[in-house]
C-alpha cells in the first residue's frame, strides 16, 4: 500500500490573508505530493518497509537500507512534517491555548508571549530550510529546530506543534520576510489540535 497525499481539512484560500491560496495550493499539490511520490519511489527499493506506518519509518531510520536511507529520511520526513502542519493550522485558529497545554506552556516558559518569542527566534534563526518545533517530554515543553525535513520524531521525541520555514511556505506573499510570515502564522495555530497532541504524549 503506497503512501498517499492527505486532503487538506480546508480550502486552499481558507487561511487567507495569513497564507495565500496560491502558496497553499503549490505547497500541497507540488511540494507535499512530491515528498509522497519520492518516498514511494524510494521504498520500491526497500519493499520490506512498504507495509510500515509513516511513524514506524520516521522513528527508525537506521533500519532503512543505506542506499535509500537519505531519500527516505528526506521524503518520509517531508510527508510526516506536512501531514502535521496542515492540521495544526485552521481558518478558526489563533488566540490562546487552553487546558493542560496552556498550563504546560506557562510552567515551561513563564508566559505565552515568552514562548512565542522563543519559538519565533528558533524559527527565524534556522539558517536555510527547516522547521521549528514544540516538543513535549512528559509535562515539560521545549523548543527545537531541525534542518531540511528532519523532525523530533526521528530522535524518538514527541512534537505537538511545528512551523515550516522553507521559503516555499511563504515566499510568494512574504518574500524574504520570514518574521512577517511567522507573526501572521500564529493567527492560524489550531490550539485544539495542539492540545490533542499534548494529551497523546508518551507519559513518563
Ligand atoms: Mn513545506
Would you kindly provide a written description of the structure presented here, covering whatever features stand out?
- With 204 residues, this protein is mainly α.
- The protein has 2 domains: 20-87, Fe,Mn superoxide dismutase (SOD) domain (Helix Hairpins); 99-199, Iron/manganese superoxide dismutase, C-terminal domain (minor pseudopilin epsh fold, 3-Layer(bab) Sandwich), CATH 3.55.40.
- It is 47% helix and 11% strand.
- It has 8 helices and 3 strands.
- The chain has helices at residues 21-43, 54-58, 66-87, 99-109, 112-125, 171-174, 178-185, 191-199; strands spanning 130-137, 140-147, 158-164.
- It has a 3-stranded antiparallel β-sheet.
- Helix 1 packs antiparallel against helix 3.
- The longest helix is centred in the first third of the chain and has 23 residues, at 21-43.
- It is globular.
- The model has no long low-confidence stretch (mean pLDDT 97).
- It binds manganese (II) ion (MN).
- The site of manganese (II) ion has 7 residues, from helix 1.
- Residues 27, 31, 82, 164, 166, 168-169 line the site of manganese (II) ion.
